[in-house]
Write a structure and sequence with these properties.
heterodimer; A: mainly alpha; B: mainly alpha; two-stranded antiparallel ribbon; about 75% helix; about 0% strand
């Protein structure tokens, strides 16, 4: 009882401080608070289009964050979701350009598989390095991000380039690879459903199967896992595969649902945001659905606020950073326990 | 060798050193911090903060000293947030560093837009000039690269030598290493672990802030959103490549910029 009270109190204080700082920032710009706030809220729930936009933003965040959470639960700190998203995007582009005449069902299922494998294998590299040689996966995943981002840069200028355009991008993929649209005037696509399904699957895997139990055990206490006969290495590599694979799916859904072609910068640091989303969601799939919607709403709303009241969008980045720092700090201030 | 190639090599070396300096400075700071057992992913944030605040102070006061001080203060502020979170609150260092990156990326561009966003011309400052060291800069090939540079490069040389001595010849180095490798043993031996860690984080902030200040006050003379664009992460790599050795880090920076 006492713990839940202090938990609620600390959350209120954190929310209060973050709200206060954001209001202060709005005042510093010189915009009026009511009009900024109303444009913020209208930008999120004002129309069908804006709601769709929030869901579109939430899709890659949710998928990548699910991946990050699987890694975190197993003690594999995956900072490389960004690179894995790019790898998934490369995979579907390659598939679409190499086999353009596949029927839609086969095309979409194959692209999901290839994207999952591409992202997964990209993350298995640091996974194996960590499991076998004990190298820091944090540094390795960050470095692989750079390789992946610049790999896309090379590919869209060379082998995957559209020869009829001077810009560095791939040709449009065949329509058979497109995800079906859900809510037509908006850009909402079936990738959102995919993300929800993945959340349920991740929940079932992590909390309802023995493999998931072993993975969580490895994350909580390696030594105890070894002593009770759980193979730390294989579970670490498995979690790296799943972690990268889910981020790869995020890349696939961005291409198949939104851009329909490979361009540079398809992921405006979704991979790093996904870590924040996963932390806010306590690494639990169902909370991640909520937190990804929250972060997406924050971003979409702050963009609307910039358009109508001139408050820079970087306010979203400030709020997120502050939120995470406050949440990390509140443990000590209020003595509450995190999961 | 004909004189043209010689000049080419010389300018190339000089450019390499210039490009490596900010990363090497930040990397040195991170080396100290990692030796004390705090791996700060937020080098990017420290550099950005240093770059913005030094630019801001120099723009307002047009004084180099104040600008550098502000840059150092900005860097220390950023690294102190991380230090308090990871030492006092025992938070996950990786996540704290990441949050720091988001916070300072947002904060610096927000402040920049508020203060300079209204004008269409790019606000710029006088960049810090080069200083030739007498005689030494006349050494062929490496002379101009090493001894005809801005003060930051000399500062970098100084820091490398200082840290080398500190790490391998003094008790401080042993203490730092002990705190990083076995905090419990260090605590038993009567070392105040947390104080050492705060000190290391402070040095990280100072050097990282200077590295950031180099970008805005020497290299570019202006500030823009996300000025560092991933240089902080490169600094992290050079620390690993240099095996947390004060000489190895900058060398790997130079190698990296060389390619």
């Amino acid at each position: 009882m006492k713990r839940s009270v202090s938990n609620a109190l600390s959350l209120t204080v954190v929310t209060g401080i973050v709200l206060g700082v954001s209001l202060l920032l709005i005042v510093m710009v010189g915009s009026s608070i009511p009009s900024s706030l109303s444009s913020f809220i209208r930008g999120i729930v004002g129309s069908t289009y804006s709601i769709g936009e929030v869901l579109v933003r939430a899709t890659p965040l949710m998928l990548a964050a699910l991946g990050v959470s699987v890694g975190f639960r197993t003690g594999f700190i995956n900072i490389g979701a960004e690179g894995q998203i790019y790898l998934g995007a490369i995979a579907i582009t390659w598939l679409g350009m190499t086999f353009p005449s596949l029927p839609p069902v086969l095309m979409i299922s194959l692209s999901l598989l290839v994207g999952f494998l591409a992202g997964g294998l990209w993350s298995v590299i640091p996974g194996i390095l960590k499991a076998k040689f004990g190298l820091s996966e944090i540094i390795n995943t960050i470095m692989l991000n750079y390789i992946a981002i610049n790999l896309v840069g090379i590919l869209v200028r060379t082998s995957l380039k559209d020869p009829s355009y001077p810009y560095p991008m791939s040709p449009m993929l065949p329509p058979s690879s497109y995800f079906p649209m859900l809510l037509l005037p908006t850009r909402l696509h079936a990738g959102f459903l995919l993300a929800l399904i993945c959340a349920i699957l991740v929940y079932l895997l992590m909390f309802r199967t023995s493999t998931g139990f072993c993975m969580r055990a490895v994350g909580l206490n390696k030594r105890a896992s070894v002593c009770s006969g759980i193979s730390v290495r294989s579970h670490m590599v498995l979690s790296a595969l799943l972690s990268g694979g889910l981020a790869g799916l995020a890349g696939v859904s961005e291409i198949a649902g939104l851009h329909h072609r490979l361009i540079e910068g398809i992921s405006p640091s979704y991979g790093y945001l996904a870590i924040v989303v996963s932390l806010l969601g306590k690494n639990h799939p169902f909370w991640i659905i909520l937190s990804s919607l929250g972060i997406a709403a924050l971003q979409v709303g702050s963009m609307a606020m910039q358009r109508s009241s001139g408050v820079p969008t970087s306010i979203a980045s400030i709020i997120m950073g502050l939120l995470v720092i406050m949440i990390l700090a509140r443990k000590q201030f209020f003595g509450c326990k995190e999961v | 060798m004909n004189p043209v190639t010689l000049t080419l090599i010389t300018t190339f070396l000089a450019a390499t050193i210039r490009m490596a300096t900010p990363i090497a400075l930040a990397g040195l700071g991170e080396t100290v911090s990692e030796r004390a057992g705090i791996s700060n992913i937020g080098v990017e944030a420290i550099m950005l903060s240093g770059a913005y605040f030094s630019f801001w102070a120099m723009f307002q006061t047009s004084s180099i000293a104040l600008g550098l001080l502000a840059g150092i203060a900005g860097g220390v502020a950023a690294s102190m947030i991380h230090a308090v979170l990871s030492i006092h609150h025992k938070a996950d260092q990786t996540i704290a560093g990441l949050a720091l990156n988001f916070l300072f990326l947002g904060l610096t561009s927000f402040l920049f837009l508020i203060q300079f966003g209204k004008t269409t011309t790019l606000p710029s400052i006088e960049i810090i000039n080069r200083v030739k060291l007498p005689l030494l800069h006349r050494i062929p090939i490496i002379g101009p690269a090493l001894f005809d540079q801005d003060p930051f490069v000399y500062l970098l040389f100084l820091c490398v030598i200082l840290l080398l001595v500190l790490f391998y010849k003094t008790e401080w180095g042993v203490i730092l290493k002990a705190v990083g490798e076995n905090p419990r043993a260090a605590d038993t031996a009567g070392i105040r672990v947390n104080m050492v860690r705060y000190g290391a984080a402070c040095i990280n902030g100072v050097l990282g802030g200077l590295g950031g200040a180099y970008l805005s006050t020497v290299k570019l003379g202006f500030f823009q959103e996300n000025l560092t664009s991933g240089k902080g992460y490169i600094a992290l790599v050079t620390v690993i490549l240099g095996r947390r050795n004060p000489l190895g880090g900058p060398c790997s920076c130079v190698g990296h910029r060389f390619s």
